[in-house]
Amino acid sequence: MIESENKQELLDKRYMRMAYIWSENSYCKRRKVGALLVKDKMIISDGYNGTPSGFENICEDEDNKTKPYVLHAEANAITKVACSNNSSKDATLYVTSSPCIECAKLIIQAGINRVVYADAYRLSDGVDLLRRAGIELVNVELNG
Ligand SMILES: [Zn+2]
Known about the structure:
Blueprint: H1 2-23, E1 34-39, E2 42-48, H2 73-82, E3 92-97, H3 101-109, E4 114-119, H4 125-132, E5 136-139
Parallel strand pairs: 3-4, 4-5
Antiparallel strand pairs: 1-2, 1-3
Residues 72, 74, 99-100, 102-103 line the site of zinc ion.
């Protein structure tokens, strides 16, 4: 039992490292976030924060504020799977920052049953909502 728990923790950390690498795709300057959707040991979707398809690859306005139409990494991963033949039902979401409340709503409705996150976002209302929905939450810390 202990052995399988360690194995899951090891996998969680590996996927999280991949999510971090994926966050490097983000052209947002203020904050780069990466997300992966994993189901049956397969990556079925991915995302990073950025503007919608077809828009300029600039996240910040002249005042260095994030544009209102920038999608979060989780929202991009979930909407990407919606465009595919895959289903996010019972999938695990790996995200480098804890989800905000808007993404938490999408995560619940997408049928995702496990969320693994690294950096805790300053507001905990998203994580609180996921907990209320009965979604398994795992906080992993990557040390180097
Ligand atoms: Zn969000």
